[in-house]
Every structure is written in C-alpha cells, then in structure tokens.
Specification:
Catalytic activity: myo-inositol + O2 = D-glucuronate + H2O + H(+)
Helix content: 40-55%
GO cellular component, one term: cytoplasm
Enzyme class: oxidoreductase
Pathway: Polyol metabolism; myo-inositol degradation into D-glucuronate; D-glucuronate from myo-inositol: step 1/1
Strand order of the largest sheet: 1-2
Largest sheet: 2 strands, antiparallel
Subcellular location: Cytoplasm
Number of helices: 11
Shape: globular
Order of helices and strands: HHEHHHHHHHHHE
Number of strands: 2
Length: about 280
C-alpha cells in the first residue's frame, strides 16, 4: 500500500520512502535464524509450557480488579521506555518507540481515522504487566487459544509444547478442545498476555473507541489466526467481518519497525489530543 506523506507528522523516515519498504518484508518474523533467536525461543518455550487453562483463568482473576496502578495513557507509554520485548525477533529497542512508529504509520495511511491512529499508540500498552513483575512469557509474543490443541502456524509449535500439561488432558487436546464449533473468538480463552489485559483495561475504563478498536487490541497478536489462517473452526461470522481490520492494523504493527526512531516530543501533543477525546484522565490499570 503506497501512502502519501503527511508533512505534519514527525516520524523519522526519509521523506521519499514508504515506511513499509524500509525493511524487506521477508526479513520480519524470522523464527529460524538471527541474532535474537535464542532469546526468542526461550521466551516461547516458557510460554508454551506454562500457558494453560488454569493459568489463564488465574491471571484473569488476579488482574481483573484493575488495582495495579492509577496512570494516564502517556504515563504508561513512557513506562515502556524500560521494556524490550524478548519475544520479538525484529527489534531490540524500547517498546515505547514502537508504539509511536505504529501510530504514525497508520496516521499516514488513514489520515481520516483518528481512532485508528490512537489504536497504534495503545496496542502494546498491556506490556506494562512486565514492569509489574510478570514474566515476559506471560505478557508478550503471539497469542493462541488455550483449551484446545495448538494448530500448525503457532510459532515453534513442534518444539515447545511437550511439557504443557493441558495437552495430556483429553478435554483440551483435540482440535476443538473445550469449545463448540464457531463459538466466536470472544468466547475463547486466549493465552494470557498484553492483548487481553489491555482489552480489559479499555472496557473497565470505558474508552469511547469504536468496536473495531477493541477487537484489534484484543487479537492483534493472534498471528496463527489473522496471518496463519488457523482456528477458523472457532470463528463466528462477526470474527470474519472484523478480520480485515486486524490484518490492516498488522501491516503497521509489523512493517513500521525501523531503527530510526520517531521524534516523540513533537508527536506527543497530537496523541494527547486523541487521548483527551477517547480515553482521558487517570485510568485504572
């Protein structure tokens, strides 16, 4: 998708270069080689061992009262200066910069959808869990349904699930597991992480964003579904209607990653305006 450059944005890309072409797309999400592979594999091995039905239900109970901290959106963005995502094979810089890169990529391509720009900034804020003491394998990385057998496009599926006790449980080890066909992803228990947590934060704090925004936040890391084509047996018609929105968002989540970092100070006033419009004030996390 070629997009026009908005001269009012301050993302540090060469002005004649489409952000999507800054890096060869084939080099993203490389889980077979690269300098970060050992770190990435170790994170997924822990995730795929310990993310079980009981574990996820426990995390919903633990964080469901939103008593961790009272913070504004931009305070949480700033906290992510301290976080480097150990599941990401593409970048090794703080997650706060990725938030602005994603948001600005969307803003360039969709200048008329300010709510979508804000989704770019918000999408990874659930990773604040890692700064609350949660291990990264319970915060970052691709998500997948628990309570059923992992499907083929789950990252490292064949080498990381051997010690997951749910796969020895007949209730959870079949293709459908504990679910009914086409029950809808909203009725599926996803592996616990920043997607589900941020979605719940948005609901609890009554963000005035459209349903598409909530859906994107909740499922943007569900790569085995939106990119791998798996888990269709769980999808409702509404999931398939929403799928193009998640796929459109994913272009900017993935392909705006670049070591040239945005000028955050110039961007903050614009995004503060969106926050004031859709999710103002001090929020419960």
């Amino acid at each position: 998708m070629k997009v026009a450059v908005d001269p009012n944005t301050s993302l540090v890309y060469p002005r004649n270069v489409d952000p999507e072409t800054v890096k060869d797309k084939n080099n993203f999400r490389n889980y077979t080689s690269g300098p970060l592979l050992d770190r990435v594999f170790a994170t997924y091995k822990l995730m795929h061992t310990h993310q079980t039905v009981d574990f996820v239900r426990g995390k919903h109970a633990q964080f469901g009262d939103f008593s961790y901290k009272k913070m504004t959106v931009l305070e949480v963005v700033d906290m992510l200066d301290q976080l480097v995502d150990e599941s990401d094979p593409d970048v090794d810089f703080p997650n706060s910069f990725h938030a602005y890169q994603t948001a600005e990529g969307i803003r360039r391509a969709h200048p008329d959808k300010d709510w979508f720009h804000l989704v770019g900034l918000l999408h990874d804020l659930g990773k604040v869990l890692a700064l609350a003491g949660e291990p990264q394998w319970a915060v970052v990385g691709d998500t997948f349904p628990v309570g059923c057998r992992p499907q083929g496009s789950v990252v490292f599926r064949d080498s990381t699930f051997q010690d997951n006790p749910d796969l020895q449980d007949p209730r959870y080890s079949t293709e459908l597991g504990m679910y009914q066909p086409h029950c809808g992803l909203g009725n599926v228990l996803m592996s616990w992480g920043h997607d589900e947590y941020m979605y719940q934060v948005m609901k609890f704090n009554k963000f005035s964003l459209p349903p598409e925004a909530f859906y994107i936040i909740r499922f943007h890391s569900f790569y085995p579904w939106h990119t791998g084509g798996d888990y269709r047996q769980l999808c409702s018609e509404q999931d398939l209607v929403m799928l193009p929105w998640v796929q459109e968002f994913n272009k900017f989540d993935l392909y705006t990653k670049c070591p040239e970092l945005p000028d955050v100070d110039k961007l903050r006033p614009y995004y503060q305006g969106l926050i004031d419009k859709y999710c103002p004030g001090v929020l419960s996390w």
